[in-house]
Amino acid sequence: MNKPEDIVRSERAQLDFSRDMSYGDYLQLDAILSAQKPLSPDHNEMLFIVQHQTSELWMKLMLHELSAAIASIAADELPPAFKMLARVSRIMEQLVHAWDVLATMTPPEYSAIRPYLANSSGFQSWQYRCIEFRLGNKNAAMLKPHAHHAERLSVVQAAYEAPSLYDESLRLLARRGVPMPASHVQRDWTQPYEASKEVEQAWLQVYRAPQQHWDLYQLGEELTDLEDAFRLWRFRHVTTVERVIGFKRGTGGTGGVSYLRKMLDVVLFPEIWQLRTDL
């Protein structure tokens, strides 16, 4: 049987990186792996930190893909947008499963680290807020947690003021000749989206003739997949929080589970869901 060192030698694997970039160099692993700095003496805080840091990395990729998808839809370039939106949905699946790991933290374990969190909370995640805004859930009050950091605020503000994924999708339908109310293709993008019977009729026109409007029909299904995955993430968030802290108030000042349950009722693309009843 070949010895391990013989196998490595026969494969001609590079072993000397004194002058070349290594895997760790490329991924900046020294910076990433030194970013976990527990404040409590409790063993379980590492889980809490890593779960949230990895979620933020997935959200960074989600924003990268979501922003590019919105730009592609605005440019009438749907094939790359479909690829990006499909990737966003798969990222959401990763974020859903991240709750499975955090759910292994028991109430006594969380109670041991909670005092060290002070008022910090996922509620204050600027990347998550940008995702919400990009998906159309606009709320001016959600800018305030970032007001103390000018550069960060400017990024969140830009997402708040820009047309959302759904806004650009409706504008695309209008450009393709599908009747669309002017109130939904030129409006104040900072205002929360309001469902419209006329918009529903526009989507129904697409869904009743999918062969004629195939790419728009596929866009509708990509939006459905994305919101489906986002709903699962929200639901898993609620159940994990209730499992770990019950109905205590959140560290960020919200009602905790009560606030998260209200968020379950937020519908991002209402006409896409309503048309299924009316078809």
Task: Give an overview in words.
There is one protein chain. By secondary structure, the protein is mainly α. 63% of the residues lie in helices and 0% in strands. The protein contains 13 helices and no strands. The protein has helices at residues 4-10, 23-27, 29-33, 45-74, 78-102, 107-117, 126-134, 150-161, 165-175, 197-208, 214-245, 257-263, 270-278. The mean pLDDT is 92. Its cofactor is heme. Heme-dependent dioxygenase that catalyzes the oxidative cleavage of the L-tryptophan (L-Trp) pyrrole ring and converts L-tryptophan to N-formyl-L-kynurenine. Catalyzes the oxidative cleavage of the indole moiety. Belongs to the tryptophan 2,3-dioxygenase family. Its EC number is 1.13.11.11. It catalyses: L-tryptophan + O2 = N-formyl-L-kynurenine.
Compact overview of the structure:
Belongs to the tryptophan 2,3-dioxygenase family. It catalyses: L-tryptophan + O2 = N-formyl-L-kynurenine. By secondary structure, this protein is mainly alpha-helical.
